[in-house]
Amino acid sequence: MRRQKKFYAWGYADEDLTPEEIRPWEAEIAQRYGLSGFDVKAPPRADEIVLRKSRVDVPSALQAMVRTDHLTRLEHSYGKAGFDTLRMFMRSVPNPPDAVAFPESEEDIVKVLDWCDRIGAKAIPYGGGSSVVKGIEPSAAFDKVVTISTRHMDKVLEVDPVSHAARIQGGIYGPAIEDALRNTPFTMRHYMQAYRCSTLGGWIATRSGGHYATLYTHIDDFVESTRVVTPEGTLETRRLPGSGAGPSPDRMFIGSEGILGIITEAWVRLRKKPTFRASASVRFRDFHAGADAVRDITQAGLYPANCRLLEAREALPGIPWDNEEAVLVLAFESPDHPLDAWMKRALEICAAHGGVADESDDDENAHRSGAAGAWRNKFIRAPHYGEHAVARGILSSTFETSMTWERTRDFQTKITKIARDTIKAVTGREGTVTCRFTHVYPDGPCLYFTFGGVFDPKKDALAQFMEVLSTCTAATVEHGGTTTHHHAVGRFHRPFYDRQRPELFARALRGAKRELDPKGMMNPGVLIDP
Ligand SMILES: Cc1cc2nc3c(=O)[nH]c(=O)nc-3n(C[C@H](O)[C@H](O)[C@H](O)COP(=O)(O)OP(=O)(O)OC[C@H]3O[C@@H](n4cnc5c(N)ncnc54)[C@H](O)[C@@H]3O)c2cc1C
To answer: If you take atom 6 of ligand 1, which residue's CA is the nearest one?
Structure first.
C-alpha cells in the first residue's frame, strides 16, 4: 500500500519528531526569542478544511485514473513551503485542483491533456509536490484545473553499465532510484534535501541542486537526454555525452517548470558508488574567514563533494546565539583512489585562513560523526520542524541566491541587515538571520539564508510571513543576485524573476511555449504569461 504523505506539512502521515527532539528545540527557541512558553495549535484534520466543489465531470473513459475526492484534491493544493503549512494551519485552501489525474503511461497523459483541452482546463504537472515556490498551486484565475501526478510512472527502465547511465521515468522518488541501483556498482547521488519526497521529473523541471557542493551541483549536469509529452506531441532528445549542435533541446526542458509539457523519462548520468572518503570539519573565527578559505579551495581546482560553510550557531547544538564562529563541513569521495592528498591540501588552505580542523573527524566514518555528523542529522531532520514552528507562532523560512566572490561579502552583509530590519519592522521584535554556503563555484557561492522570528499575534500571520520573505527575495535581485539558486521560480518568485531576466528572453520563451502549448494550458503563471 502507498505510504500516505501529510497533506499539511513535510513528510509522511505516520512520522513526526520525537519528544526528545522537540523539547530541547522548544527550549532553545524560547530562549532565543525571550518567550516564556507556547500556545501550541493543533495541526488541521482534512475534514476541518472546506473545499470548493469540483467544477469538472470526469468522463467514464478516464474515471479509472482521475480522482476528485476531498483528500486527494486537498493533498495536491499546496506545496511544502512554510507559507503552505501556515495556510493549512489556517484551514484556508480556496483554490484546490478540480481533479487529480494519475496516468500510468504517456498514452494516458495524452488522453488527460486532450480532456483538459476539450473542457478548457489548465493542467498542472505534479511530481512529489515538494515545491516551495507555489509551482504546483492552482491560481484563483483558473476556471478549471486538473493536476497531473506522475507518481505511477516510477521505474528505472534500463541501466547502461558501459556509459554509466540509466533511463528513468519522471515520477520516481529519490530513494526508489537508489533502491533500483542497489545491485549495481552505480549511484545517482542527487541527495537534495527533499530527496525522500520529490521526483526525477520534478528535479529536472526545477533545475534542482543536490548533494554535490561543487562540479555537479544542479540536475543539469546529470541529464543526458529527456523525453517530454507536450500538448503538440512527444519529443525525445538524442543521448549524447556532449554536443555543440546549437542551443540544447534538453536545456529548454531543464527548468521548464511544467509550462511546456510533462517530462516522462530521462537518461541520467550515474557514478560508481564511492568507496574512498575523506571528511573533516574546520572551525573559523568567523564566516568571512571561512568564506575566504572556501573561495581558495574552489579556485585551487580541488572540487570537494561537500563544502558547506555554516554559522556554528546554526550547525551545531549548544552554541550560544552571539557566537560568531563558522564551521566548514568538507568531504571528498571517489570510487577509485584515496583522497588524503586532496584533503591535506584543502586543510592547508583552511589553516592559512586560521581554520582549525576538528580532530575527531579523522576516520572513514567522519561524515556521520563529529561536527559533520551533527550537521548531517540536522539537515535530514530540519524539514520536520516547520510544522512545529507554525504551530507555536514562530516565523521561520529560507531564501537562497548566488553572487560572484568579489561582491559576496558586501552582498551578504547587506542582505542580512535587510532581513533583520524587515523582521523587526514587520513583527515588532528582533529576529534571527543566518547564512550558509550550500554550493560553491570558482567564481562565487550559493548563499542560503535562514530567518526566524515571532509573529505579532495582533496582525495577520500570513501577511507577515509573505512580507518578510518577499522583501528579502526582492533585495537579493535588487542587489545583483538571482531570485533563486535552486528552489525554482514557480508563482512565488515570478515578480522577482521578471525583474532579473532580459525581456527579449521572455519573448523567446513565450514563442517556444506558443509552439508547444498553443492554448496556454500548461501551468500558466509560472515563468511567463502567455
Ligand atoms: C524540505 C524541503 C527541502 C528542499 N530542498 C531542496 C534542495 O536541497 N534542492 C533543491 O533543488 N530543491 C529543494 N527543495 C525544493 C523542491 O524539493 C524541488 O524544487 C524539487 O525539485 C521539486 O520536485 P518535486 O518532484 O517535488 O516537484 P513538484 O513540487 O511536484 O513540482 C515542481 C515543479 O515542477 C513541475 N513538474 C513536476 N514534475 C514534472 C514533470 N515530470 N514534468 C514537467 N514538470 C514537472 C511542476 O509543475 C512544478 O512547476 C526543497 C523543498 C522542501 C520542501
So the answer is: 193
